[in-house]
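Progress report, Aim 2. The chain analyzed during this reporting quarter is listed below.
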Amino acid sequence: MDPVSLGLLAALAGGAGGELGRDVWAGLTALVRRPFRRGEGEGAAPTVSTGVPELTRLSQDPDDQLSAQALSTALAVRAALDSDFHMALVDWLRQAQTVPTDEGAVHNTISGGTQYGPVVQGRDFSGLIFTSTPARPPRPAGDEGHRDDTPG
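Predicted structure tokens for the chain:
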């Protein structure tokens, strides 16, 4: 299973998605608090986190990327060791991905004077080529008679 997105975890912990987001976060909380069942017949498995401490830390500070990373890792490890948890986590993730979290949202701002030239706003661009020359800035007022190509 791929790790759960850090942005998704942080957004849900921070209350994104309104009531639906809170319900999805509560679903993850309930899932993580389930008893940890490892596969039958396995020897002494290494001690791993249930995910509860990581979930609690992220709940307390949704902007902490390290807490989001720790929870994502704990979920992935637990899913690898507990097949019931894995299936439940996949179901939870399917539901969580329907919550509008603003993850991947683009907020573009152009400010600070007048810009001359092409502007592309969006996200995840690659291979862009601009083949036009930028527009020349307008001449200052009162400079209409001056020509740039006159001999000096």
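Residues 6-34+50-96 form one domain. Residues 34 and 99 are 23 Å apart (CA to CA). These observations will guide the mutagenesis work planned for the next reporting period.
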